[in-house]
Specification:
12 helices, alpha/beta
Amino acid sequence: MDIQESIEPVMETRTFGRTGMQVSMLGLGGHELNLCSDRQAHLLIRRALETGFNVIDTAECYGESEERIGQSLGAQREKCYIFTKCGHNDGLNLPPWTPQIIEYSIERSLQRLRTDYIDLVLLHSCSLKRLQQGDVITSLQKAQQAGKVRFIGYSGDREAARFAANSQAFDALEFSLNIADQSSIEQLLPLTIANGMGVIAKRPLANMAWKKLQTRRTEAARVYKKRLEALRYDFLQSEDVHITDIALRFTTSVPGVHTAIVGTTNPDHLEANVFTLAAGPLLADDFAAIRARWQAVARWRKILPGGRLSWQAWI
């Protein structure tokens, strides 16, 4: 009797722009590490490393996430790249997105993460006006020059992200990209590719907005739900597992994307995502159909007075 051995999928790695870092196609999202116990967080991180994840993406405002990462990694610190964000005044009596906040926040992140350096620090969704002033960028550059940070980036969308991509001050950009949010494909990716930037796709599963029952419906998920109702992709009539498969493979098949951040409190979901990507990129015809449907239907983008955009403007 033939015995068929099970083969574990191998996580693909991609060169993270001009940084040269070889990042896993999927990164572990740190927000959910704040939504579980210390033990659960430890199990999630251990499973992530075992299944080929080598990126952990967190932020100063994700509660206990940074501390749990630091506690869990220990001697395995060198097995992964740590990405964190700064700019919010979480727990601090200082104005957000200022040089003082950035300096203090990076020091605090180093302590929480129990590391001497952070691979990538991203400015966390500050406004276009603050970016244009330049002082927050200078603060990040000082931390980089001091060896506390290897690379610097910006996390956000739309006009501020375009400015960041054009500024040539940043090594990486993190922005939303999924079946319900494709504007970055035309507006941001040509800039990041031209400038050799590392690209992180956040919300690659569109907050699973297609699910009928959601225990935690975020504002982004509500917007994505309305968009999907308008887009009416054929595959949305399928089982959840098939929708997830297509959604994740779509995002990771977009040229110029290096890693996509997935978050969960269930370690089994991480392994399932790796098996999903083991099937390879989305078929060219399926990818083209999703893009064509978006281009035909996505007409909800509106500019508010003063050039501002809000989630509500995108419904």
